[in-house]
Structures are given as structure tokens and as C-alpha cells.
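Hi team,

As requested, here is the filled-out complex form for the 1,6-di-O-phosphono-beta-D-fructofuranose run. I kept the field names the same as last time so the parser does not choke. Let me know if anything looks off before we queue the next batch.

— J.
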Amino acid sequence: MEAKYLNLLSEKFNSEEKVVTEIINLESILDLPKGTEHFVSDLHGEFQAFQHVLRNGSGNVRVKIRDVFKDRLTEDEISEFAALVYYPEDKLKLVKNQVGSREALNEWYKIKIHHMIELISFASSKYTRSKLRKALPKQFVYIIEELLYKSDEDTNKKPYYEKIVDKIITLGQAEKLIIGLSYTTQRLVVDHLHVVGDIYDRGPEPDKIMDTLIDYHSLDIQWGNHDVLWIGAYAGSKVCLANILRICARYDNLDIIEDAYGINLRPLLNLAEKYYEDNPAFHPKQHSEKALTEQEKLQITKIHQAIAIIQFKLESPIIKRRPYFEMEERLVLEKVDYDKQEITVYGETYPLEHTCFSTVDPEDPVKLLEEEEEVIDKLLLSLQQSEKLKRHMNFLMKKGSLYLKYNGNLLIHGCIPVDEDGNMEQMEIDGNIYEGRELLNQFENHLRKAFKDIESTDDLSTDLVWYLWTGKHSSLFGKRAMTTFERYFIKDKASHKEEKNPYYHLREDVDVCRKMLEEFNLDPEQGHIINGHTPVKEIDGENPIKADGKMIVIDGGFSKAYQKTTGIAGYTLLYNSYGMQLVAHQHFNSKKNVLLNGADALSVRRIVDEELQRKKIRDTNIGARLQEEIEMLQALMSYRYIN
Ligand SMILES: O=P(O)(O)OC[C@H]1O[C@](O)(COP(=O)(O)O)[C@@H](O)[C@@H]1O
Ligand SMILES: [Mn+2]
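And here is what came back:
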């Protein structure tokens, strides 16, 4: 290594002892078991269900509790303890109301603190002390370490520890400590989180998911098609913006726009009131928990139509200025016969119903009315000025990518576009042809470019973000075309069908999966592809583990709207030092149910892969980085200290 780097390094490690200590420290980390990775996808705004999965570590918290206490606690007591670890603040409130006397409460605190210390001691056994320290509640680090490193056999010390706990209780700190210890436990059971796309759309609280992720200790995100739609809107794409508003109206989630992100919808509402009436094709899908008045429903129906028509109009100029997007079939407003009220798409003619074309001029159907133009411009400005959205989008960019290679696996939301023979599909962008990994890299570069320059609204990069949402070679969409127009206005369901990329049947084949792993320079023997995006229809017997375990699809439908088709409430994947396990979750009822009845419908686990030998940090991405650091330190050692 070059002397100048070694000199720089020697500033930090300025004695032989420091170098030796660091080498030994790093070497010992390499031999620890690998940390647990937790994979989730397709959260679709379902914050309550997501936070439950996060708090219980996909059932991992309960597994650890059972490992430690199975001979001492009943199943009910285990459930009760688990509920405390998941929702400490709420559980403490409940207990205080139930317990009769101060003495009984203090006794309860004492037992729980001891149990929690025991649990943490077990759950942290594969971490270094310094890593554990970082996970402890700051104000109690010293005390907890004292409690953790006691040895039970050491009877001399026992009274001392009893005293510490008693003192904590008499000083009124028990609750704070229990809350802190609960969050430490949650944090210890999962070392790193992967969010394999689609945080946004359909569900009511994507902003709360984003806030939770921002506070999370270690994670990465693979963007989903819905996430790039939001990124696109923020990056200046008006058509992406029209789409996110349309979806929010469709799912009765305009609160996200108005209340969560502070974007003023008044101009859109005024336009909608002026031009639109009631229309059953545009009624919002209603949440069971939120009853709308007729008046509210009508208002949303009008907004829904106004923004859908703006969306269709905005698509046309992009399709025309980017012929290599090959989307001419989607020039829908121009394919309508306005006299006959019918449309010809993909060679078929269909009658139209529920039309709402009052702002459409048959002579120039894609021309925006001045009012429409004004509305979308105002909305874009307001969106780009939302501080909260800016924070969330910046975080998505910082932690996100289109795909990720991590510990030998390939994580990607949608697909790798291929043809029927499994060959990488080619796409032209601006005169150059790309395929496979190269194509995905191009998409990502353009997305980052669009995000850097939010003032530009019609440049290639911004158009490509929209292409990622809906284009036929998009690795996130994975279908040939989006039939939004048909689904609103054509009765015949045959026209609604969205043909999938051949990837979706070819991925059942081991050899195809191997080839794809190779395309990304991953070892086909060791690696897996992990996908979200397409709901696995467990109800129809579909298996999320495909191609002999090389392919794992974890979209089981956190999204309430899709649970009817999947039959479950989402999959998550755990990958610890013993191997990979897929977890199928039951429908998440409510936090209240967990707290009161310990109902935490135990998730069903299926082994994907079992390691023959327990995997160590040495075998991971982080291990490779540590090994490089060790080599550098060794070079420093010979350069400076050994002669
Ligand atoms: O269920 P909705 O709201 O009609 O949305 C359907 C649209 O969503 C998509 O499935 C994309 O969303 P997903 O990524 O969740 O699949 C489109 O292909 C389809 O046109
Ligand atoms: Mn998706």
C-alpha cells in the first residue's frame, strides 16, 4: 500500500499497541456468528401491521423469550411478557390499572427487570460489548452493564445487584428502564433490515413508516414502483404527481397529501367541483374503519376524475417525445372515438362507460385546460416545498437503490426484464442499447439525476422515472402495459389484463435464476434472488419459495386491499447464522388485541435454507470489509513497527 495512506492511518493508530489491539479486536469480530437480517416488502402504507412485525422481529422476540423461559413461564406468561417487549408504554399503563397495590406493582417491576436483563444477556450473546452498549438506553448504560455482567453464582455480589434494582424502583425509574430494555431487545433480535420496496400507496400511513425507518438502527431500501412514483413526483414529474394523487383519491387517502405532507388540495378540488359529477367508476375504495359521509365521498369521486384525466393528458407528450419508450398504444385519449363513445386499443374496439370527458376537446384531446395546467403547477410547487416530504424523499435516496447485492443475495423489488427464452431484454435509451444489470444501472443513474435537478420537469431523466413506474422494460413494473384507462372505462375485463414479463414464470426455473445471479456477478451456488411486488396467492396454493429455494418472493400482502387474493397478511424473511426462514403472517388485528389477549398469531415459519456450518461475520459483506481493514493494519504494522 502507498506510504501516504499508511502515514495517514498511523495518525489514528499511533502506537504499536493500538494497531495490535485493533487487529485482535477485528479478528475476534470476524468469528462471531453473522447478525440476523430481516427482509420485508410491499408495506403499502400499513404502518400498524408493519410496526408490529418490526417490534416482534417477525416472531423472533417470542422465540428468544421461549428459549430462555420455556421451563419457567407458561405460554400465557410468555405472551404477556412478549407484549410488554413489543409495546412497553401501553402494557405498563394496563398493568398499573390492574395491579392492586404499590407493593405488588414494585414486585412486578422487579421480576420484569430481572427477566429482561436475562433476555438481553441471551439475545446479545453474539454481539461485542461495544455493539451491545450502543443498543442500550443511554441514561441507563452503566447500571445495565452492572446488571448484565453479574454472575449468578457469585453469591457475594447478589445483594449488591438486588439493591441496584430496588433503588431503581424506589427512585421511580422502573418504567423508564423497562421501556428502554424493551427497545434494546427489539433492536438486538434484528441486526439489519432490508425493505424490498413499495412503502407508499394504497394504505393510510406511509409517512409514519418513513419516520420509523429514519429512526431505525440499520437498514437499506430497494425502491418499489410505488416508491419511485413518489420520488418522480418530488423530482418534478407532473405525470408521477398526477398518479400519486389519483391513487390517494382511489384509496381514500388524500389525508396523506393534505395532513401528513401539508399540500394544499383546494385548487384541485375547485376544478373538480366545476367539471365533474358523481361517477361510480371513481368511487373511493373505502376503509372499514373510516366511514365517509355522502358529501365527502362525492368530493373524492370528483377529485379522482379530475386528476385521472389530467394524468392521461400528461402522458401523451412524453410518449411522443420518447419513441423508444414504445408506448404509442397508451395514447388512449387520442384513440377514443368521442362521437361513438368507444375506443380501439391493441386492435380491439370496446364501448366506453362511465366516461368523464368534460375537459377533453375531441379536436385536441390531450390539451390541458389552462385551469388544469395551473392546478398541476401549483400542486407540484406545493409538493416540492413540503419539508416533511423532502426529508422522506432524501432518506429514500440515501438508503435506497434499484437493486442490492448483499451477503451473496440479489435483492430487487420487481424483476430483471427477460424475453421468453430467458435472455436479457434490450432497451434503447437515447440512442444506446442496454440490457440486464447495465440497463438497471442506467435507470438508477437517471433517477438520481432527476432527483438532483427537481426544477427540470420534461428532461429524459425525469421521463425515465415515470417509465420505471409503467414502461414495458421497467425492472420495477414487470408488465407490458398498465391498463388504468381500460379499468376505469371499459366493462370487458379482458381489456384490463396486464401481461407480465416472462420473468414471472421463468423465475420458477433454477437455471434461469442461476443465470440471473451470474449476470450480477453473484455466486449461483450460494446466492438467492429476493423479490417483492407480486402478491403470492397462498390461497391458491402458490409457493413463495421457488426454483429450489433460489428465488424467494416475499410479497404476501401487507396491503389490506390485497389480502383477499393472498389469503395471508404478508411474508417476511429472516436470515440468521443458521440459515434462511420464511415467515408467513396472519392478519394483524390490532395492537389492542396483542396487549389484552396476547394474540400475536404466531407466524408460520418455513425453512428456505439451512447452513451446514453456522455462518460467521467473516462470511458476510461486513466481514469482507473488516478483513480489508485488517490487511491495512497489518501493512501498517510492517511499515512502521516491525523491522
Ligand atoms: O389495485 P389497483 O389500485 O387498481 O392498482 C392496480 C395497478 O397497480 C399495479 O398492480 C402496480 O402496483 P403493484 O406494484 O402493487 O402491483 C399495476 O400493475 C396496476 O395497474
Ligand atoms: Mn410493486
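Two things worth flagging: The radius of gyration is 28 Å. The first helix runs from residue 3 to 12.

Thanks,
J.
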